[in-house]
Design brief:
The chain is mainly α and 137 residues long. The chain has one domain. 82% of the residues lie in helices and 0% in strands. α1 runs antiparallel to α4. It is elongated and about 55 Å long. 31% of the residues are buried.
């Protein structure tokens, strides 16, 4: 396992998650998403911010999957377990976001989305540390 490549993936994830959080806060505070969501909204200037938020979310899910795969190659199981836990919170955040936008726009879903991303970011910091310690053993 190339620890540098793994570390870059974890670092990238650690940067994408706060970006996702900030994009979500900007959308929540400054953009009124129509209910029901109409396709023309996404073609507007405000809709572009939502699209960037979605693309960033897809990148986060892709990296979460790769990090889980790569973390399984360490002798120590801790990086793998932490990676799975972080991915669970990423999935919680995405499910909450989809529910918020398309079904209800109830604030609790926005809140659980933010909790998911913040918790995942914290867990990924532990993934990186556990991986570094695993290579020293």
């Amino acid at each position: 396992m190339d620890i540098r490549r793994f570390s870059r993936a974890v670092l990238t994830q650690s940067l994408l998650l706060p970006l996702q959080f900030l994009l979500g806060m900007a959308i929540n505070l400054f953009i009124q998403i129509p209910d029901p969501v109409i396709s023309g909204f996404f073609a507007s200037a405000r809709g572009v911010l939502v699209i960037i938020h979605v693309i960033n979310g897809l990148a986060i899910v892709t990296l979460a999957t790769l990090i889980i795969i790569f973390s399984g190659k360490f002798k120590n199981a801790l990086p793998s377990r932490l990676s799975v836990a972080a991915a669970v919170f990423v999935i919680l955040a995405i499910a909450s976001g989809v529910t918020f936008v398309f079904f209800s726009q109830i604030d609790i879903f926005s809140y659980t989305m933010s909790i998911g991303f913040v918790t995942a970011a914290v867990l990924y910091s532990f993934v990186g540390r556990a991986a570094m310690q695993s290579t020293k053993q």
